[in-house]
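Data card: per-record layout.
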Amino acid sequence: MAKQDSIQLMTKGSVAKQIIGYAVPIFIGYLFQQLYNTVDALIVGNFLGQNALAAVTSVGSLIFLFVGFFNGFATGASVIVANAIGAQDEERTKKAVYTTATFGIILGLIMTVSGYALTDQMLMWMGLPKEVFGLSSIYLKI
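The structure for this 142-residue chain is written out next.
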């Protein structure tokens, strides 16, 4: 790699510092996701009522499933990119990054379209009560 000095490899330096430097952004991301869910529930519960709150909170696990899927995809892709960086193979690194980005965009579009089309079916599989079914469907589609 031409710019070796600007790349921080996890194989150099303090292991604890490297792990903390890697874990903190992930932790902050999950923290913001949880704060989003909490604030969402507070606002909906205080302003839109009991059924709306039930609709929003009942689909939290479904949303987390999709977020977790993409996090898993990103983690797997990061292994391939890290392997290429560790091998100092600039061409393979570029290819891995571009392939990951392209696949992520395509997968995101497929998941968006299929998720929108299958929202009601997924909610039926979850056994949502009819009182919150419609609101949950609208919330997920938005």
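Known properties of this structure: Residues 50-141 form one domain. Helices lie at 15-47, 50-58, 60-86, 90-126, 130-141.

See the next section for split statistics.
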